[in-house]
Amino acid sequence: MKLKFEQWVDEKELSEEAxxxxxxxxxxxxxxxxxxxxxxxxxxxxxxxxxRILNSEVPSGFVNxxxxxxxxxxxxxxxxxxxxxxxxxxxxxxxxxxxxxxDIRSQVNYWKGRRNDCAHAKDNIISYSHIESFxxxxxxxxxxxxxxxxxxxxxxxxxxxxxxxxxxxxTDFSYIIKSIPSAIQIDEFDEFLEQLYIVLKELMxxxxxDFDLSSKVFSKMLEIENxxxxxxxxxxxxxNEELAxxxxxxxxxKLVYFHKFATFIRSLWYDKIGEIYYKSSIASVLLRNNxxxxxxxxxxxxxxxxxxxxxxxxxxxxxxxxKYNYFDVVIEIFNVSQNSSYEWWYKKxxxxxxxxxxxxxxxxxxxxxxLVSINNNNCTKEFYDCIVEFSRKNxxxxxxxxxxxIEIGVLGLFNK
Length: 416
Hints:
This protein is mainly alpha-helical. The chain is built from 23 helices and two strands.
């Protein structure tokens, strides 16, 4: 069984070096080697702080030369750990690296003392409680160690990455997403998301082809393995109707992240389905993952078919849709008694109508009613045109029309 801290480590986007140090700490803890365990965890903590500084641009209050020297100092083989602690201590009014409270700085100093107890074999006892307390400190406070100005820097990185005069198109941007948890404090995350969306909208407005950029970036952010951050991203998307529809259009598979938000999901397919291009794709995702309550499935399928706009399901989606009687709703529309009521539907679904005629099993009774309707001029012109076109391409259907027309005494277009 994994320790709580062990699970926490596995969920974090850590460098290989930091991850290995924490794993060594856990091994030592389980072996009751508590001094070694605390030492490895402490080094893991300092390694993360070092990496955050090295990956950051110059904070306000520092000049470039000073910042580069500090970066060089924290990579010094002999004194890197001491220099990282000194960097944390910097706390002048207009010059600091981390905007953290004095209480947190004091705790860092306390744990530095316990690290020294471990490294220099001092008389102070180091027990399992020290390790667990330090781990609790990390879980509570590590996210607060964000280099000042990191939010603006993060937004600028995104601007540069999606400016194709500076970065080649289709360059992987996952490195940016992975760095977000360590760059943005949780209490600033809501504001960051709003600013991020504005930046992405600006980039889309200045591009001929990046119309799905906001969906692409926010969909990737949903994969961040941090519950607090993930919750904020989900709630922001729900609150931003335009973004939610974009994700449904371009990344419908990400709707699985919203399975707990029944009201949002229903509103999306009930009220906004007309704005979603690939209705069969969103339908298969929601049905495959049991996101639509069983009591609403029939209503959902009816909505998907009625709001279709000449979109043809792919084979993978169709396998799911057929399990939920997708074509039964189509047959209802094809039914002669309702035909004239669906003129609007046929006008925007010519290709889809032809596709369905080739997929469904046309019963004799249906064809009889169809021929009578055609003979009495009660058939919607658009549907009639589809029947004619389909019969020209499908000899079996054409022969069926001809045979039944003779049988029921309706002579005309479809007779041999």
